[in-house]
Amino acid sequence: DGKLLFERFSNGVGYAPSCHLQQQVQQRNRPHFQSLFAIQNPTGDLVYSNLEVQAIKNGFQSATVLEQTQATLSAIDAAPFQTFHCVHFSCHAYFNLANPIKSALILADAPVTAAIADPKSERYLIWRDGETHDLDKCLTLDKIFSLNLKQCRLVNLSACETGLTDPKSISDEYIGLPSGFLFAGSPSVVSSLWKVNDLSSSFLMMKFYEILQQQQRQNQPFNSVIALNHAQQWLRNLTCRELEQEFAKPQFKNAIAQLQQTLSKEEFFEIEDAIESRRKKFQKLDPNDQPFANPYYWAAFIATGV
């Protein structure tokens, strides 16, 4: 009948690395969702990451944010993960199909600028545009397994290709970044399957958290699968007219104003110019056009766990 999978199931579609791990996460009761830990644009090239994290941060009672160059592995090692209810990574990621345990979230001090004695070593990742990253300074899957997320309700990997696994594995479990965070204690992980558009994913994430917090206020069961489903439907159906209204909302304007206080002038002007450029582009379209209707913009994100 032409319906998409997420249209057939109003409660959303969730995933699990294995039945055993799914049984474990279903037993985790995490009623609280007031404390946020976030990694924000550690490589400095994700313009909308700054806006995304700032807007999300405003919805929590307390927030610890490692911004840009602060987002190092040593800073993450020092963070009290056992106290956070939500962990949000807005950064680049890498999935290693040959050796999934070395899949990683890219952090601020990972780029290598000096000459390397053995560039073919497994320690180094030759990444986009020939850039070299030191995996010893990234948050790799083997390090994720050792995190203590005993209070965490949700881990959100707002980065590219964080939900990939090895489909050819003969193991009884699909190994990837989401399974690492589930093993570390979180009952729910949101991740992505392909390189996502930065603006559309930022709006999707902001709506996703808005729906989760509505669930809390209305004393509804916390359900990231349903929240993601509703956020994806919202983004898919969003018209240019409605998008203009989103740009004009106080929450959006407040996040922009707060960024002016935390970013350098150059960084703030960059995001301001980027937003204005995109806004003018959408204003030239028919007000009823749906600029994010293509699944590329909204279907990349999946919820793993409960």
List the helices and strands and how they pair.
Elements lengths: L4 H4 L5 E2 L3 H8 L8 E6 L6 H11 L4 E6 L5 H6 L7 E5 L2 E2 L9 E2 L18 E3 L5 E3 L4 E2 H4 L9 E4 L19 H8 L3 E5 L5 H20 L6 H14 L2 H9 L1 H13 L2 H19 L11 H4 L2 E5 L1
Parallel strand pairs: 1-12, 2-3, 2-4, 4-10, 10-11
Antiparallel strand pairs: 5-6, 6-9, 7-8, 11-12
Helix pairs in contact: 3-7, 3-10, 3-11, 7-8
How can the largest sheet be summarized? 7 strands, mixed
Which structural class should the secondary elements be placed in? Answer: alpha/beta
Shape by Cα distribution: globular
Distance between the termini: 29 Å
CATH architecture: 3-Layer(aba) Sandwich
Low-confidence stretches: none
Q: How are helices and strands ordered from N to C?
A: HEHEHEHEEEEEEHEHEHHHHHHE
DSSP strand content: 5-15%
Query: What's the mean pLDDT score?
Result: 90
Q: Output the CATH topology.
A: Rossmann fold
Number of helices: 12
CATH top level label: Alpha Beta
Q: How many E-type strands?
A: 12
Main sheet: which strands, in order across?
Answer: 1-12-11-10-4-2-3
Query: What is the radius of gyration computed over CA atoms, rounded to a whole number of angstroms?
Result: 19 Å
Mind explaining what this structure looks like?
The protein is α/β, with parallel strands linked by helices and 306 residues long. It has one domain: Rossmann fold (3-Layer(aba) Sandwich). It is 39% helix and 15% strand. The strands form three sheets. Strands 1-12-11-10-4-2-3 form a seven-stranded mixed beta sheet, sandwiched between helices. Helix 6 links the parallel strand 10 and strand 11. Helix 3 packs parallel to helix 7. The longest helix has 20 residues. The chain is globular, with a radius of gyration of 19 Å. The protein starts with a helix and ends with a strand.
